[in-house]
Amino acid sequence: AEAAFEEMQVSGLQANKMTYNPLLTALWYGSQRRRAVQRFSSAVETGVYINPQANNQTLDVHTMSAGAASIAALQWLSHVEVTLRRNQLDVHSDLTDFNIITGWGRHSKDEGLSEVKTSVIELLKDMHIPFSVHRDNPGLLSASHHVVCSWVNSLRLSETGGNLVQLALTQYERGGYKRAHDNHFCW
Length: 187
Prior knowledge:
Blueprint: H1 2-10, H2 17-29, H3 33-45, E1 58-60, H4 66-86, E2 98-101, H5 115-126, E3 132-134, E4 137-143, H6 145-154, H7 164-173
Parallel strand pairs: 1-2
Antiparallel strand pairs: 2-4, 3-4
Helix pairs in contact: 2-3, 2-4, 3-4, 4-5
């Protein structure tokens, strides 16, 4: 996939979501996650994707591929983590929920089965991040401010220089996260 992408760029064709989406999914699920993150960052720099760090409370990935959505979610969560730490983690705050818009699968091959939603949920489960499907909107994953602050407080980022993206990539390279199919998700 990456060779075809490079060939396309050499021939002068402009990269867009239609070319980045399959590339990022192939890299992410082909265990080339560091390369996928680099490619995603390049796509953000060139305006193909909106910077996932543009909004502290909500991330919209519903028009991305499964791989691109996972990378965007990981980068957004890293930004949320840094922002919460800088604001000294007021776990008793009544700030609004954190939300990830995944879509519910209306435009999927099998209507109602969103590959994007499934991919983001897998990432959140792998990282033990307590989001749940919103009770009134099956295309929205939510977590309260209190719950996200508690999760951030539980992180041990020292082995990666304090970077959540690097921690996640290192965990995947060491054999992946152990799935924690626990009570954090409500179906």
